[in-house]
Amino acid sequence: MSNAEQPAPYAGTPADPTAGAAAGTGAGPRRIRIPHLQQFKDSGQHFAMLTAYDQYTAAIFDEAGIEVLLVGDSAANNVMGHATTLPITLDEMIVFARSVTAGAQRALVVADLPFGSYEVSPAQAVESSIRLLKEGLVHAVKMEGGAHYVPHVSALAAAGIPVMAHVGFTPQSEHALGGYRVQGRGDAAQAVLDDAVALADAGAFCVLMEMVPAHVAAQVDAAVAVPTIGIGAGNATTGQVLVWQDMAGMRGGKAPRFVKAFADVRSVLSQAAKEYAAEVRSGSFPGPEHSF
């Protein structure tokens, strides 16, 4: 890559993630790219990642300065109503991906490879990823699994497809793991570290860790040169990710320990729906100002 082709330095800071292009100053990059995430790692800064499944939330998060949007297979249980992430198909993921890329003008958009779309062979992983990039218009894919998938990651990297590794708790393997359990405790910590190092060495541009003890995640972050992302993995990682419905307080019931709700959108929507219904029933909506 020539000097003229080098990406513009990222202008955001941990204190002001909307600095630069997201704030309309023109100081930051027009599009967050993988080298910008590496700049965060190299400079000791942090970036934010949220899931998104439609154009409106994608546009809102994009405008807010969120650097990475994840079209997660979590759409299966957060949008489609399934009990797990397993039922969602590649075709369905492509629809969600295309919706998000339609709304995101600046964020790096990553899509999950859903269960059944990559496990058979490295060739299957490449074929599925090509569809996500060509039809879903995403910029990178994410793959769950440990060192067993080194050949898959290598094949994707050789094909020019950016791949984010996902280790620790991997929801697609929840039945094999015995449910939602923290991974990497005690003697199992070395396995998480070994998986992360192997996948990074194979060509993964980033390693995401889910439900891993904070000290283990810190060891992984120190051991790999690429950026790391945590969800339930402490604050030593380069980035953090949450499901947007969790972050915004959309879901009901008890949330996982690692979730913090930064708003109560569920109550806001509920109140708006109640007021709408009340006005419809009373006949006050639509009024003359809403009629032709």
From TrEMBL:
Enzyme Commission code: 2.1.2.11
Pathway assigned in UniProt: Cofactor biosynthesis; (R)-pantothenate biosynthesis; (R)-pantoate from 3-methyl-2-oxobutanoate: step 1/2
GO BP terms in the entry: pantothenate biosynthetic process
Residues holding 3-methyl-2-oxobutanoate: D73, S74, D112, K142
GO molecular function: 3-methyl-2-oxobutanoate hydroxymethyltransferase activity; magnesium ion binding
InterPro entries the record matches: Pantoate_hydroxy_MeTrfase, Pyrv/PenolPyrv_kinase-like_dom, Pyrv_kinase-like_dom_sf
The protein's required cofactors: Mg(2+)
Protein encoded by which gene: panB
Co-factor note (free text): Binds 1 Mg(2+) ion per subunit.
Localization in the cell: Cytoplasm
Keyword Zinc: no
Catalytic residues, chain numbering: E210 (proton acceptor)
Organism domain of life: Bacteria
Source organism (scientific name): Arthrobacter jiangjiafuii
Lineage: Bacteria, Bacillati, Actinomycetota, Actinomycetes, Micrococcales
Keywords: Cytoplasm, Magnesium, Metal-binding, Pantothenate biosynthesis, Transferase
Name assigned to this protein: 3-methyl-2-oxobutanoate hydroxymethyltransferase
Cytoplasm among keywords: yes
Subunit relationships: Homodecamer; pentamer of dimers.
EC class: transferase
